[in-house]
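Deliverable D4.2, example record:
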Amino acid sequence: MYLLEVADLKVKVENRIILDGVSFGLKSGEIHILFGPNGSGKTTLIGTIIGLPTYEVVSGRILFMGEDITGKSVDERAKFGIGVGFQNPPEIAGVKLGDLLKFCLGKSLEDEFSEEEMRLIEAFRLKDFLKRETHVGFSGGERKRSEILQLLFLKPKVLLLDEPDSGVDVESLKIIAGEIQRYIESSGASALIITHKGDILEYVNAKYGCVLLNGKIHCFTDPKHVYEDIKREGYEGCIKCQVKSEEKW
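Output generated by the structure prediction step:
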C-alpha cells in the first residue's frame, strides 16, 4: 500500500487549470524527486496535497494510507501525518525557537530536551539559537535547518519539501539532506522533494525522479538520470522519450 497516492488529480487556481491528470504514489521508506520549471505547478501540487483552500480540486483523489483525504481540512491532514517544508520559512517574532521546538515535540515549556533531541539540535547547528526569536535575523541556511528540524520533530509519515536546497550553502545542504535520509530510514516515512538544482541528490537515496511539465508528470526513473537529461536537453527535451513512447501506444 502507498503511504500517499495521488490519482488523476486535476486542479485549478483562479479558473486556470494548473495540474491536469497528475498521478503518483509514495511507499514507506521512499524518496521521490520532483523537477520542473518555474510556474509548472510544483508548489500547487504540494499545496493541494496539504489541502490549502487556494487550490480547487476539479477531479481526482488524494489518498493517505488508503483513505480518501481529498475533502479533509489542512489540520486533519496534518494530524494524519503529512508534514510540509515551505520554500521561504517565515519569521515568528516573539516566539523563541526552543519553545517552538518543544511545541513540535508535544512538550511543555518546562520540559527538557532528550539526549536524542539534543543530538538533532546540535546536528542542525542550532543549539545557540534556542533562545532567539524563530528565524528573526537568521540566514537562509539557518532558516532552512530550523524549519527541517521542526518538521522532523513533528514526526510526519510523509514529508513534502518545497526546495529544501534553495538559498543554502553546501554544508547546510549536507546537514539537511543527511538528516532527512536518516529520518526516512529509521521511521519508514516517505518524502517528495522539489528541487531545481539537483545538488541534494548527492546526499539522499532517492528512488525516482520525475518532471512536472504542462500540468502532467513525466519520466518516473532514476533521478540522477533525469537531472542529467534536464541539464543537457532542457525540460521539454527531457520528456521527449516518454512522449514518443506514449504516442506509439
